[in-house]
Amino acid sequence: MSTRSLFVAVFALSAALVLAQAPNLGKPASPADIAAWDLNILPDGTGLPAGSGTAADGARVYGTKCAGCHGPEGKGGTAAKLVGGEPVKNMSSEKTIAGFWPYSTTLFDYIRRAMPFQQPRSLSNEEVYSLTAYILSQNKLIGQSDAMNAQTLPKVKMPNRDGFIVRFPERTP
Amino acid sequence: MNPMDRARRELETLPAAAGNGLLHRRALLRHGAALAGAVLGYSVTPLAFAQQLTEDSWSRGPGTVVPEAGLRSRFERDVVRTLSNPKGEPRTQHARTPHHLVNGTFTPNSMHFVISHAGDPDIDPDQHRLLIHGLVKQPLVFSLDALARYPMVSRMAFVECGGNSAPLFSPQPIQATAQALHGLVSCSEWTGVLLSTLLDEAGIDPRAKWIVAEGGDAPHLSRSVPLSKALDDAMIALYQNGERVMPSNGYPMRLLLPGWEGNMNIKWLRRIQLTESPGMTFYESRTYSQVLPNGKAYQFYFLQEVKSFITHPSPGLAMKGPGFYEISGIAYSGNGRIAKVMVSADGGKTWTQAALQEPVHSKAFTRFRAPWRWDGGPAVLQSRAWDEAGFSQPTRAQLVAARGQTDGVPPVTAFPSQHYNAIASWSVAPNGEVKHVYA
Predict the structure, then answer these.
(1) Is B281–A88 a contact, with Cβ atoms under 8 angstroms apart?
(2) In a mutagenesis test of the B interface, which of A91, A96, A110, A158 is the best target, namely the one with the most B β-carbons within 10 Å?
(3) Within an 8 Å CB–CB cutoff, is residue B140 touching chain A?
(4) Which domain holds residue A67?
(5) Residues of chain A contacting residue B210, judged by C-beta atoms under 8 Å apart
(6) A27 in contact with B at a CB cutoff of 8 Å?
(7) Do residue B275 and residue A163 have CB atoms under 8 angstroms apart?
(8) Which residues 111-140 of A have a C-beta within 8 angstroms of B?
(9) Residues 6 or more apart from B262 whose CB is under 8 A from it?
(10) Residues B21, B373: Cα–Cα separation, whole Å
């Protein structure tokens, strides 16, 4: 056995020992166990649940659950403006959905995990789809009667989609 | 001449190492204890005799009952974090570390900075679970009891909000303390389980390139992290300076990504999903993407780059007459160890090297110190740090040329942009007042 292969063998053995020393106390989880926490939506639509919603449905949900903080039509409230906004020019620009956000899927993901502020996770998937449709429609990024669902939402291209530069490409896969 | 007077005279005649009274970093050590005693006088004018010493009231009888959990002296009640949202209105809360009122190289747990986007959850540790799933061979759930049986590591690490020092994007210097300007960074000894240990147990699918980490707080805050960082030095931190992680800092467990943007160090950690691509979550695609002067925005900044600032003296700490002072501050870099800190007392015209407190830990606070003989005239104090990767702090002019500044003067609590790490400057006026300036 060469020195190198001896080294490889010893290394493999010690790696195996380290693994053997780990207590292995994680409990296997089934898809059903995970379902309630499985919240991530990726830009390609991975993770989007069944269901669908339109701006008309969304307007009703918005009026009762969102307008109190975000204003009657997505602006003028104490919380972030949701409707309107210019393309960003510099750091003094407002980062609005229409003017800055690169992905439509982020809207669904964020509403579902974090909103309403006082009662996150209280909305049904249908309500989240319809609110997403309402906000996109108010921003004229989709048509007034376009339904948002797992197929249509990832296809909505946001105006600032290509407005980003990866800061450290060598660190970013 | 008595030894004290001799030491004082020696101090007054020490050669300067840089302009405006900066002394060599080892000047005081070289001249021994008598000199150090003289320095504590903080004055070059002859000292008045000390008052006659007597037995104080607290020395003439037993003290109070020792508390179960230690409390600070009642004379230190003003040493507190400042709160941006003390009534808990439905928006983000910030608590800033009083860097000008603490010292050393780690931050006391009660003083660690906090950003909480919807308050601190009141998590029952027995009910809390950590789920690892997605592109793994076997999704796994860990309880805190289970994690407590894993091999642990301890390390010093700073955590800094990507928006720390954002008031310095203002076109005019905002007058505020080091706490208000730079208070969203703190440093602790963190103890926990390396994330790589748990990912090994779950079995990483070769397609995985990212993890998406999520908290159990109300906004279920989530951030995407390259798998390479997760396997490098990421930790599931269970302890902070020896006690369980504080509720505001992620109790009962947080993700620690040494040297990386604070917001990515997910608090109240409950879930890690391995994915092929990033989630483009709200906080990474919107909030922590910073807009540049050409209208494009940096995405995935990750790193907290090399930085330093002087904490003593600093705004809010008035100088008490000419004489000897120790300039002291903190330096840190997400790239590794601090290699060198230079200090100037004349607004950057001349510099001398500061002494670094040993041991110098990677990705952690390093305290720097430089002896200074203030002649009572105007001075501008600056510090500039270099890290072991060779990076150094830019001047403010360089940083603004690349990143821009705000149009008007923003509120001191605003976050117009992120990742400000330029040289900071304090002016000292003849009356002893210390102010924030651009120099």
Answers:
(1) no
(2) A91
(3) yes
(4) 40-162
(5) 173
(6) yes
(7) no
(8) 113-114, 117-118, 120-121
(9) B115, B159, B160, B161, B162, B164, B184, B185, B304
(10) 5
Work out the widest C-alpha separation in chain A, in whole angstroms.
78
How many domains does the structure of chain A reveal? 1
Would the CB atoms of A171 and B302 count as touching at under 8 Å? yes
Q: Indicate the pLDDT class of residue A21, thresholds 50, 70 and 90.
A: low
User: Residue B432 has what DSSP assignment?
Assistant: S
Rg (CA), chain B: 24
Asked if residue A110 is part of any domain, the answer here is yes
Instruction: Report which residue type is found at A52.
Output: S
Report which of B206, B207, B264 is spatially closest to residue B235, judged by C-alpha positions.
B264
B295:A110 CB<8 A: no
Q: Which of A105, A120, A165 sits opposite B298 (nearest CB)?
A: A165
Complete domains list, chain B, with CATH: 129-162+185-298 (3.90.420.10)
Q: Distance (Å) from the C-alpha of residue B360 to the closest C-alpha of chain A?
A: 25
Judging contacts by C-beta atoms under 8 Å, the chain A residues touching residue B293 are: 90
Q: How many helices (H) and strands (E) does chain A have?
A: 6, 4
Question: Does the beta-carbon distance from B200 to A89 stay under 8 Å?
Answer: no
Token reading at B320: 């008490």
Q: Where are the alpha helices (DSSP H) in chain A?
A: 3-21, 31-34, 55-65, 67-70, 105-114, 125-138
pLDDT exceeds cutoff 70 at A5: no
ipTM: 0.91
Which residues on A lie below 8 Å from B296 (Cβ)? 163-165
Half-sphere exposure of B374 (CA within 13 A, CB side): 29
A residues 49-78 near B, CB within 8 Å?
A: 69, 78
CATH number for the domain harbouring residue A119: 1.10.760.10
- Reduce the DSSP state of residue B420 to 3 states and report it: coil
The torsion angle over the Cα atoms of residues B180, B184, B186 and B192, rounded to 10 degrees, is: 160
pLDDT band of B36, cuts 50, 70, 90: very low
Q: How far is B394 from chain A (nearest CA, A)?
A: 17
**Cα separations (Å) of A74 from A66, A96, A128, A135, A148?**
8, 11, 15, 8, 18
Q: Residue A6 falls within a domain, yes or no?
A: no
CB B337 within 8 A of CB B358: no
Q: Do residues B116 and B248 touch, judged by C-beta distance below 8 A?
A: yes
Give the whole-angstrom CA distance, residue B237 versus residue B248. 14
pLDDT for B44 equals 40
Nearest to B219 among A38, A120, A164 (CB): A120
Could you report the per-residue pLDDT of B351-385, keeping only the tens digit for each? Answer: 999 999 999 999 999 999 999 999 999 999 999 99
Task: Count CB atoms within 10 A of the CB of residue A144.
Answer: 12
Residue with the two structure tokens 């040494």: B258
Q: Can you tell me the distance from the alpha carbon of B99 to that of B329, in angstroms, rounded to the nearest whole number?
A: 9
Chain A neighbors of B138, CB-CB under 8 A? 26, 28
Q: Name the token pair of A26.
A: 């994680």
Spatial neighbors of A39 by CB under 8 A, at least 6 apart, are: A47, A109, A112, A113, B214, B220, B222
Residue in A with minimal Cα distance to B279: A42
Q: Which residues contact A168 (CB under 8 A, 6 or more apart)?
A: B300, B301, B302, B303
CB A108 within 8 A of CB A153: yes
CB atoms within 10 A of CB B32: 12
Task: Identify residue A34 by its one-letter amino acid code.
Answer: I
